[in-house]
Amino acid sequence: MKKKIIYICVLFLIIAPFLYAQHAVGSWQNYLSYHNVTRTEPAGNIIYAVGNGSLFSYDKEDSSVQCYWKNYLLSDTDISYIVYSKEYKTLIIIYSNANIDLLVNDNIVYNLPDYMNKNMTQNKNVNHICLAKEYAYLSTSFGVIVLNLKRREITNTYILNKQINACAVDDTKIYAASSEGLFTGLLTENLLDANNWNKVSDTKYSNLSNYNNNLVGNISYQGIYLINKSDYNHSQLVKGHYTFMYVYEDKLIASNDNSLGLFNNINEFHSLNHNLNTSYFSYANGFFWAGCKENGLIGLKFDNNNVMQITTPSIIPNSPKRNYNFYMNIEKNGNLLIAGGGMVGDRLNYVGTIMELSNNTWSSFQEDGIKEQTGQSYKDINCVVQDPTDPEHYFAASAGEGLYEFNNKNFINQYSLHNSPLETANGYDTFVRINGLKYDNDNNLWMTNSGKDKTEGVLNPIKILKSDGKWISLRYPEIAGLNNLERTMFDKRGNFWVISSWIADYGVFCLDTKGTLEDSSDDKHKFIKNFTNQDGTILSHNGIYCITEDKNGAIWIGTGQGPIILNNPSNFFEDDFYCTQIKVPRDDGTNLADFLLANDKINAIAVDGGNRKWIGTEMNGIYLLSPDGLETIHHFTAENSPLLSNNIQSIAIHPHTGEVFIGTSKGLVSYQSDATEPEDNFVEDNVYAYPNPVKPDYTGVITITGLVQDTDIKITNVSGKLIHEGTSVGGQFTWDGKNQQGKRVPSGVYFVLAANAEGKEGIATKILFIR
User: Is the pTM value of this prediction over 0.85?
Assistant: First the structure.
């Protein structure tokens, strides 16, 4: 009766405006980088470009930019090569895994997976594509694959048992530049028979082109040569090193990083200088299209004096700067913060990368000029945190260069061996390994300082930069000198947890300072390498990689052999402490069970608003588990979803929208979950349904958000008849728009009546259906 009274009191409240961008529950978003353009291809009014392995296009007429990705036209991810056939209006797309797409008329894709699926020992890289009539000749590590663009199929495979760098085709012959020299074959012969291929030269060309019926070859670090088709001797046309050579319209183009070589005909060559730091050039209708390293796609032309004029400035779709996703965190203001480095036994040598997604717009922290100011390379940034007292102030940790400080995304300071208590990892001044940045409730910045040299290594593995600028160094012998002190967290009790991930000295450390940072005499601390489970079995974890606390205070730890759970972390310091391995019943009548994900390396664990666990694995995609871990709600892989890779590196969940950001080895995607963090109380402006109104063509779920934990939901029509009911997941509830008989509801207004679990508070909103 209490609930009914509350419902009536709030019956006529209306929905609130959206505070955050909303995606349909169950939908996927791609956040791929497009900055480093490695290939460009003119196709009429549009220019295709591959940036960081992803495809986008630029429309010259309206200046619009279109991105393409897996499950949005494309079949796969990580593109290595594209070529456009003007005659068949087809963009040939080669992926790094040897999958092939044919994008026809910019709106239809034909997938040719046969080459990818073929079982073979040789690598499947496609080194070059040559177009001739209706055929595309793909140069591979073992021979030549022939695509028929008219029939949209692989028609032949010429196995030559040698690497083919490039092919060229004229009216009578095919020419193959190989690792053993130049080979030719008559097009009228059976080229499936390797005996019909003739070696005509020992010269090892890196590239070939049929230019105005002239056979032209490029030799790396030597130059470009005209090859005599009679005796296959060659004469040098241009001296120099060129990384590619291709024919566009009536031009033969060759290029390196800062120079463009242009043949207007076989006897007229121009060397055109530029400062664009390019990977590739294409040409169409008097304009060149440059693929630039980290500066996207640029359109340009050269005047009569060969002076470069940029006609279309840098075109980069709104995207992260790189596909690096080692560390992710949602800031208090709702922005996504990413550090793109890593932390391994040695170095990854990734360029220093910090990126932020704010209001659907990507930006990056300063990179240029830091090396000049510090005297050290700026690289391997493994985590970054926002100052809780100043949203423009950040600290970032490096796997070898210490601690960096930024304000408004600009570098302002570096803390290392000479201006702080930070210690060197190996006795050298230039190797200070920092990780695990976390602020405590008093705004003190904690960090790990790890590494060891031939003697004793880092003596004080935990450093604290207090809010007043004073440093504190904490010494705990059990973790001093460990090589990879990595992820950290504070639990609900204020204890500080550290994981050591290096395979040789993995383990979990817990510290209780008793609230006295500068007096370590009363500290409790313990390091456990191999946990004992609930059955008394001592576990060998094969590494420990992540740690997080759930909403019930249990601590979930990702190991090399599945997750373990510390259900009573307050007992960690006791001698008889044990962990729990979840046993999942087989439900096959045998009364047997298996340990949860025991065959998977767990790289990331995140807890959503419903206390469910998102588990990211090294090779098996991502799992969504029930709060107790016994039920698998979702298991997303690259094979059954838009997930880019099965190698999950990081996970971050937006508390207000429920968007689950998933960092993979091939880039960032997100999944719109049905759970958000619950509100403490119902707030009128925060409770609303979307989409609203529900239009006739919409068949997805309707989401009610802004709810408290375990909100009791009842949906009625205007006459008060119950249509649907249920309980929220965290702060959100989804409805499929169907009544209790499983039928879609007709047009009309429907009331959402919400009450907390005790029935003491309630609120309501409306949903309009248009059929």
Answer: yes
Please compute, for residue 690, the number of CA atoms within 13 A of its CA located in the half-sphere on the CB side. Answer: 18
Q: What is the pLDDT of residues 701-756, one digit of tens each?
A: 999 999 999 999 999 999 999 999 999 999 999 999 999 999 999 999 999 999 99
Choosing from 312, 341, 365, the residue where a domain stops is 312
The continuous run of DSSP H or E covering 339 comes out as strand 336-339
What residue numbers bound the domain in which 757 lies? 2-24+677-769
User: Based on the structure, what is the number of domains in the chain?
Assistant: 2
Residues 8 and 53 in one domain: no
Residues with Cβ within 8 Å of 593's Cβ and at least 6 positions away in sequence, in order, are: 583, 584, 585, 586
Which pair of structure tokens corresponds to residue 439? 């602020």
CB 431 within 8 A of CB 457: no
**Residue 147 burial (CB < 10 Å; 0-12/13-18/19+)?**
buried
Evaluate the CA torsion angle 743, 744, 746, 752 in order and state its sign: positive
Chain-centroid distance of CA 165 in Å reads 31
Q: What is the largest CA-CA distance in the chain?
A: 99
| Helix, strand, coil percent values for the chain (each to nearest 5) | 5, 50, 45
Give CA–CA dist 35/363, Å, rounded. 12
**CB 180: neighbour CB atoms within 10 A?**
14
Q: Which of 764, 761, 730 has its CA nearest to residue 750?
A: 764
pLDDT in tens, 512-546: 999 999 898 999 999 999 999 999 999 988 899 99
